Amino acid sequence: MVKNAVKTVLLHTGALLYGNQDSKVIYYHDIHDNTAYTSMSTPIKLFLKHLETIQNMNYTVVQEITNRKNEIEITFDDGFRGLYENFLLLIDRKIHVKLFLVTDFIDKKNYLTKGEIEEMLGSGYLSIGSHSVSHQNLDLHDRKRLIYELEASKKKLEDLFDRQISSLCFPRGRFSDLVIEESEKTGYSKLYSCLPGSYFSPYRKNLIPRSLAQHALPSDFSAILNGGDQIYFKRYLKMHYRNGDLA
Ligand SMILES: [Zn+2]
């Protein structure tokens, strides 16, 4: 409780400090009604509250951000099944989401099947990107294994779903200069991080900031939309980036 209160105060202080209406990417792991497939899943009621807040704060959910202000891209990581079970709620509201898939997890227990992903893609409200082959920290691999994780996942998704894959999301948000270099060489032009910030203020070219939204209470969520979580930037950078400073 105390911890939550401190977090709320920090987020709202951040919103005052950094407060902006910049376009941003937010991320979740799953949504659920009765059955949660992961402790990272967001109850559907809370998720719908978030959508309401997005609308009330004059943001629009888009497939790809193209405007500096007022746009939100919603992303999901890992490929849990709850998204499929609740997908009609998104279609009804014309909400587009981007899903980052771990290719080894497809068709496994608690994860989406190939058929379910195809069905969602067919609705026009889903796009997909790679989240590696095995979900191990990319910054810990040697170059050869790193290249395998990047290339094999891209190729598998392209073969399975017959489309170009150009977005990558780092497992556990972990990356390094080598990860960035090899990802770009592999053909990824958008690298989704777990560092908070505005879409058009990347800390490095192609490196896209994202804000964690999955358990945010509605009032904290509005502070996040205003950029309040940038107050955690240094802490997140230390947790996720191997080479020190991005400046
Ligand atoms: Zn993940």
UniProtKB/TrEMBL annotation:
Subcellular location: Secreted
Main location: secreted
Name of the protein: NodB homology domain-containing protein
CDD domains found in the cross-reference section: CE4_NodB_like_5s_6s
InterPro entries according to UniProt: Glyco_hydro/deAcase_b/a-brl, NODB_dom, Polysacch_Deacetylase
Keywords tagged on the record: Signal
Top-rank taxon, per record: Bacteria
Occurrences of domain NodB homology (ranges): 70-247
